[in-house]
Structures
1.
Amino acid sequence: MIALYIATGIALLASLIASRQKTLAVLKLAGKRFIRILPGFLVMLILFAIAITLVPRETLQRVLGKESGALGVALAALFGSITLMPGFIAFPLSGALLSQGVPYMVLAAFTNSIMMVGVLTYPLETQYFGARVTILRNTVSLIIALIVAVATGFVFGEIGW
Amino acid sequence: MTKRTKQIVQIAAVFAFGIFVAISFGADYETGESIGRTFTTTLLVMLRLLPCAFVLVALFDVWVERKTVERHFGESSGLRGYLWASLLGGMTIGGMYLGFPVAYSLYKKGARLSVIFAYVGFAGACRIPMTLFEISFMGAKFTAVRLGVTLPLIILTSMAMGRFLERRGYEITE
């Protein structure tokens, strides 16, 4: 987290040296966006807090935890495929789940399928690509999301060789 | 529901939640207290990360001109086509929603099918502002693994799909 602050600080300083006006615009834009997403963000956190409190820790561990293995990844991918969630909600949520002991691998399946697979955007996509290519493209995307999840599992030592 | 009413509903929900937690503490309702505490601790962690994420995204949006990339897109082919596709995809705002119409207009301008699929893939998976959020909350290692695996796979599968469909005389319509 300190690295993140340092990186942001350096980038902001560089921007300030290059142009005061643009840096002011940057801060205004960041502030405006932050205020705009704040209500939705708080609602997500409320739902998270309620779910985490009501769902027993063992159940969460069993369904999405390290022991869940392929089932957790599959569930996360399925859930990610059928939800529409902007990145600024999905990643904070994943960060919060991470702190609850949900493995990186499961979160990779979740975030990647959110980003790449669109069941709810299917009607929109078929307008351009047609049904068959839309299904083909989304299937390929889902497979990519699962491959990324497995790779993440290996890198973070969540799957043994 | 319009954006405005949606926001009003959300704000009302936040207030209702605040009242619920306050009453829970007043009445010693343990589950309610516990929900309130989980909410507060998570919120505090998020509030430490969010400012950085928003400032980084805004820096990117203010300093990088999308038009420059769009201008170069039409001229290039081969591997450079994928490079521009990835850059343009990385700058797509709103993800797939806006990705499809843009893909269609690029196709009309003569971009190859495989490059179009690559663009849509990048617009979904590799948007730079979103990636900045990802790094803030999940760490750089997580993002590095994801991009390292996703980027080559998107290019490979797009090439395969493009070739296969071009041979079958497939066309993108509106």
2.
Amino acid sequence: MKPSSHFWAGVRAELPLLVGVFPFGLIYGTLALNAGIPPIAAQGMSSILFAGSSQFAFAQLVHESTPALVIVLTIAVINLRHMLYSASLAPFMHDLSMRWKILLSYLMTDEAYAVAVLNYERVGGTAGAHYYFFGAGLALWSTWQISSALGLWVGASLPAALPLDFALPLTFIAMVVPALKIRPAVAAALSAGLVALLAYSLPYKLGLILAALTGIVVGTILESRVERNAIPLHNKEEPK
Amino acid sequence: MTIWLIMLAGGLITFGMRFSFVWLLGRFEVPETMRRALHYVPPAVLSAIVFPELFLSENHLDLSLGNARLLAGLVAIAVAAWTKNSLLTILAGFVALLVFETLSLAR
């Protein structure tokens, strides 16, 4: 297969995910505008940061005049998971040139990762596989740029009475709830939420960081405990 | 000005994390504990943002039936758990918010 066929195969594999990404971009643009962020900066975030949930958080925190350092810290914590993607894709990208490594790292979002890693697991780090990744990543990138620009454009003409800021918690609920498949994840979400409420009055939004760390620790500890208990469980009966 | 600094710092950090292991040539295995912990970052961070949005009104805990955002959020959570469809979740949440707000105004 030619590089271009790999590229288009990647684009095609990404298409179903784009349907879900497009409305998020629209909402981001609208939210950013509502938060009083200049459109150029809001669009800049889409191309420089290029990471949906952290951009939502950015818009919200700027709206609440959170100190810059706390916003950057929050962005970093939210985007920590990309290290996991990086670690998981690194073996397949081992032989690429530095230029490719930089380009594909820039395009490494949740949705592009999901598509690329499946392909890598099928074909390994072959020559065509990074064109596939590039196709998926570029398709997502273009969709994100266009949809957030459209949100910035359309959002300006929406009536102010609409409770658009509620789109943020709704978007996050739509992202988190379906992912709560195991108990430790539910415990992580609940404990983080609870701490966020208790520590809300802490200065500089530190409550948010504290809450996130609590949730991460609770989830991790519970998971290792569940695993330790899982061994004798198998001798009795299968759960479910 | 500050917004651009946040953008630059946030962008560099995010790119750095995406590039980290690719750059290190995959020579290092991610420690198991860290791999595990990373899975819990999204639910923890996102819940930490969502809870105050739903439970607090004007910085005070509001568990009353007049808290339309909390009720609408619960509807959205139910729809999300049931359908796993993000568009439906957002739509349901908005409709619920409008309904509950109208109801609490009428009272």
